[in-house]
Design the sequence.
């Protein structure tokens, strides 16, 4: 701690380690420990963690320890359900200015089902998102073809894509500038290089651990244990999240799901029936766009998988 902590006030949660938290009065970076005072539960929330990294909270501070007394309303958040049909959900982060979904074509290959669930959640909860293709230094002809197909699918859907390499530094400066003055989330499956990319953006961040990919399984080892926010030397704050292996949807209504697919949203007003599930109804504009090739079959099948997933949860 560099400065005295006011005895009470407002701060942001910058780290969550189970029942303990670190807070800072952003944009000032002066962290101090805190616990939750009493029972704090967000109205209507199904999440296991009532307080998440990025939350603005009220606190009191005495004898070297803070106590969180209230949580401010969130402007947005990203929430996931464990992939084993558990009803438990966890908020990854809240009050995010921009989310960056880090993906790789190989070592490990990011599965489209994960990408689509993450993007759908960002759409549903109001989080702007960019897809970042990392490890472009590894791209040979085959991987570049895969990347081209990936760009076609997600660029065609309307998403912004940025290709980077933490090793060669390609577009790292672009990403760094994009994060200036903002609270940004870096997320993705294990091994896609989130922590290495953050260190490339700011080499002074020594606290982030990195590890090699497990060659036995071609999946990343978990190198980040807790959700944590870091200050960038060039301005802004980065939330690094543990590698996620599964991403279950939370609190989705079947009839609303297609509105979180931008390419479906663009044409669904032309469907004959409303609401339309875009599965069996005649005169469906989404299925017409699918047949015309303006909606990716991969994205459509992801949508069908999410519909089925919601039926299982229910």
Sequence:
């Amino acid at each position: 701690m560099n400065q005295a902590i006011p005895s009470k006030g407002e701060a942001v949660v910058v780290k969550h380690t189970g029942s303990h938290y670190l807070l800072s009065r952003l944009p000032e970076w002066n962290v101090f420990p805190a616990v939750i005072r009493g029972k704090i539960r967000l109205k209507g929330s199904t999440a296991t963690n009532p307080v998440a990294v990025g939350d603005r909270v009220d606190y009191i501070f005495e004898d070297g320890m803070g106590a969180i007394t209230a949580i401010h309303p969130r402007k947005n958040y990203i929430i996931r359900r464990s992939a084993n049909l558990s009803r438990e959900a966890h908020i990854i982060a809240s009050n995010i200015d921009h989310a960056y979904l880090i993906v790789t074509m190989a070592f490990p290959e990011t599965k489209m089902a994960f990408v689509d669930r993450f993007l759908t959640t960002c759409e549903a909860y109001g989080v702007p998102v960019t897809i970042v293709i990392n490890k472009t230094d590894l791209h040979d002809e085959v991987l570049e073809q895969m990347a081209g197909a990936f760009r076609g699918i997600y660029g065609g859907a309307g998403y912004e894509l940025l290709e980077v390499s933490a090793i060669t530094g390609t577009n790292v400066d672009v990403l760094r500038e994009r994060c200036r003055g903002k609270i940004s989330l870096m997320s993705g499956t294990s091994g896609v290089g989130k922590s290495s990319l953050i260190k490339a953006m700011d080499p002074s961040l020594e606290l982030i651990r990195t590890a090699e990919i497990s060659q036995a399984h071609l999946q990343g080892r978990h190198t980040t244990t807790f959700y944590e926010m870091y200050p960038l030397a060039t301005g802004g704050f980065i939330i690094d999240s543990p590698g996620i292996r599964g991403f279950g949807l939370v609190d989705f209504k079947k009839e609303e799901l297609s509105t979180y697919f931008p390419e479906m949203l663009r044409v669904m007003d032309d469907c004959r029936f409303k609401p339309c599930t875009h599965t069996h109804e005649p005169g469906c504009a989404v299925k017409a766009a699918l047949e015309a090739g303006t909606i990716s079959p991969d994205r459509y099948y992801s949508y069908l998988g999410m519909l089925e997933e919601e039926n299982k949860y229910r």
User: Anything to note?
Assistant: Confidence is low (pLDDT under 50) at residues 208-225. The chain has three domains: 8-71, 92-240, 254-313. The CA atoms of residues 154 and 160 lie 8 Å apart. The first strand starts at residue 8 and ends at 17.
